Amino acid sequence: MLTYKTVFWITLATSRRVSSIHALNGLDADIGFCRKREASSVTLSFRPDFRAKNQKAEDQSPTVVVPALSNILSHDDDLVLCPVTALRIYLKRTSPFRGAKRRLFISLNPQKSSDIAVGSIARWIVLTVKLAYDNSDTPVNQPMRAHETRAASASLALTRGVTMGQIMSAAYWKSESTFTSFYLRHFSSLRSDNAFRINRVVVAQAATSL
């Protein structure tokens, strides 16, 4: 469950593709936690051989900075939804089984020595969403796809005042039309999924609140 939760929150927080989440580095030297007051965050990097879908071969992959919810909270009520907190706990819990594995997310089987596949990340996201629907007794109105998390993240960010420039940078889109044509979700669909009930959430690499 900790793996499911951490994968989902990091995916939602970064607005990145499943392939990007799969390519995140997980060794101590690759991860930078910043614990400054009102500026808590974690900086993540990608494997050197990874290239995003719209990235040129010669381009270096930019790092991803995920802010903590504690930056906009005066209490701990919503820290259970914080991707930085979840990641810190995940790294501690998986440390005994990580060994030389460089990917951030590792197999649910601690005895497995090989890396997980991209499909594992997608499957975990879908399972997390399904569990959320089941636990809230909410009917599923559409097919569950891991890629929808990226669209929901960027769309929620827009509704909460994150600038288009910030959203494009976080999601690594080259043009605004990519978002508006293929990923922007109507506010009505976000409401039907109860997305607006989350008062504070990290999306598009920004800590947001209603």
Structural notes for this entry:
There is one protein chain. This protein is mostly helical and 210 residues long. The chain has one domain: hpI Integrase, Chain A. It contains eight helices and five strands; from the N terminus they run H-H-E-E-E-H-H-H-H-H-H-E-E. The protein has helices spanning 2-14, 18-22, 83-98, 118-135, 148-159, 164-171, 176-183, 187-192, and strands at 32-34, 41-44, 64-67, 200-203, 206-209. The strands form two sheets. A three-stranded antiparallel beta sheet has the order 1-2-3, covered by helices on one side. The longest helix has 18 residues, at 118-135. The protein is globular and about 45 Å long. The model has no long low-confidence stretch (mean pLDDT 88).
Q: What key phrases describe this protein's structure?
A:
210 residues, mainly alpha, hpI Integrase, Chain A, 41% helix
What would you say about this model in short?
The chain is mostly helical. It contains 8 helices and 5 strands.
List the helices and strands and how they pair.
Layout: H1 2-14, H2 18-22, E1 32-34, E2 41-44, E3 64-67, H3 83-98, H4 118-135, H5 148-159, H6 164-171, H7 176-183, H8 187-192, E4 200-203, E5 206-209
Antiparallel strand pairs: 1-2, 2-3, 4-5
Helix pairs in contact: 1-3, 1-4, 1-5
